[in-house]
Amino acid sequence: MLYDVIVVGAGPAGSTAARLLAQRGASVLLLDRARFPRDKPCGGGVTIRAAAYLDLDLSPVIERTVYGARFFLGLGPAFDRWYRQPWTYMTQRCRLDSFLAEAACEAGSDFHDGEAVRAVEVEDGQVTLRSRGGAYRARTLIAADGANGISGRSGGLRPQFEEAVALEGNLPFSPSVPAEWRELIALDLGGWTGGYGWVFPKGDHLNLGVGVWKYAALTLRPKLADLCRRYGFDAAKLENLRGHHLPMRVPGTPVARGPLLAVGDAAGLIDPLTGEGIHMAFLSARLAADAIMAYLAGEATDLSPYQRAVERRLQPELTASRKLQELFHYAPPLYVALLRHSQRFWYAFCQLIRGETTYQGLLRKVGPLRPLLVYSAGLAQRRRVSKHARLR
Ligand SMILES: Cc1cc2nc3c(=O)[nH]c(=O)nc-3n(C[C@H](O)[C@H](O)[C@H](O)COP(=O)(O)OP(=O)(O)OC[C@H]3O[C@@H](n4cnc5c(N)ncnc54)[C@H](O)[C@@H]3O)c2cc1C
User: Among 177, 228, 253, 265, which has the highest number of CB atoms less than 10 A from its own CB?
Assistant: First the structure.
């Protein structure tokens, strides 16, 4: 059988793309090397802006709805901030991803789990995919196999990334975990070499994690232990400790080539400031579905409209986030003080997480100061890069 689309990887990006395409009448094969339900190293935070973009009700898999955050600066004193509306849902990836894959199946996709893709060949504008289960052919292929995916690269698609890494583990609820921890998330900012530490409440446990630039990966374990100590938790009780990459796309690098395109982490669409990837996984899946439907209908000669859509609609946000990330990590105490004392700043942060404003919108708000901020972000980046070169 010649499929219209093969989707490699049934994470949030792949399953969403498969569902949208099947709903629009395409024949879709969705493949994942893992047997479902499967877990994935992830905090499982689905921001309101991410959920709002998905035309599915996620309530069956939401374990907590969070209205507030406890902030720390460099494991120092804490302060709590609350918002009048929810800003993040908490789920577990084993539940969210199964739910999304089931929705793709209900829409008509064939789903083969437990089937790893080994190679992708493109010939005469068609794709042949080889897996443990055999060979499949399709008119187009979506690489949705995450940060370490091989399907895009195997087919000649090579987006470039800057990389961060994160490590997380779960602490089951017990009488020693105070009840207040079930209502808010905690974010430890500053002192994390490009990232932050977090505590996310789930139905029956807390998820604790830390993220940093990749060159600081060796610090992850001691930092996670420090985080546990700071909150009064026993690091030895953490279960399912797992790490993974957070790929951040270098602007302009290829995400589409001939009949192939990449979505989500496979395209490096992690939000640099927040480390969030589910939001862009959903957004890129929709742009991919649009480009593929136009191609299948003969309205485009290849999938390059997807590349252009990513550059126009996603990359400007990622670039703005990247600048704010550099600025933030240059002077974390300043931004933490603003979060603590400025209602306007805190509301702006909540509105961003809720999708009521964008990074570009925030930069526009600073008006004539914008060029200065952009210049300072460049300086901060150069200073950080040369400092890290000296440390290596
Ligand atoms: C520790 C950590 C915490 C994070 N916390 C958050 C958070 O709280 N909120 C948030 O929004 N983002 C978070 N992220 C980022 C988020 O997890 C990713 O951005 C998101 O999973 C990307 O979705 P995806 O569908 O692109 O890829 P993935 O979810 O990685 O899915 C890829 C799929 O491809 C499959 N696959 C891989 N190789 C093959 C192959 N050869 N053949 C077949 N299948 C294959 C895998 O089994 C997997 O199911 C976190 C990341 C890390 C590392």
Answer: 265
pTM of the model: 0.96
Q: Are residues 298 and 167 in the same domain?
A: no
Q: Which long-range contacts (CB under 8 A, 24 or more apart) does 347-356 make?
A: 347/83, 350/83, 350/85, 350/87, 352/49, 353/47, 353/48, 353/49, 353/87, 353/88, 353/274, 354/47, 354/48, 354/49, 354/52, 354/85, 354/87, 355/47, 355/48, 355/49, 355/50, 355/52, 355/53
CA distance 171 to 232: 12
Q: Are residues 236 and 350 in the same domain?
A: no
Residue to probe by mutation, ligand 1, list 32, 93, 192, most atoms within 8 Å of CB: 32
Total domains present in the chain: 3
CB neighbourhood size of 172 (10 A): 12
Q: Please write the tens of the pLDDT for every residue from 340-352.
A: 999 999 999 999 9
Q: How far is CA 325 from the centre of its chain?
A: 15
CB distance 272 to ligand 1 below 6 Å: no
| Nearest ligand 1 atom to alpha carbon 47 | 11
**Torsion (CA) 39, 211, 90, 267 in degrees, nearest 10:** -70
Q: What tokens were used for 217?
A: 């990966």
CA of 281 to the centre of ligand 1 (A): 9
What pLDDT does 390 receive? 67
Give per-residue pLDDT as tens, 213-259: 998 899 999 999 999 998 899 999 999 999 999 999 999 999 999 99
Pairing of strands 78-82, 126-131: unpaired
Task: Decide which of 318, 336, 358 is a domain's last residue.
Answer: 318
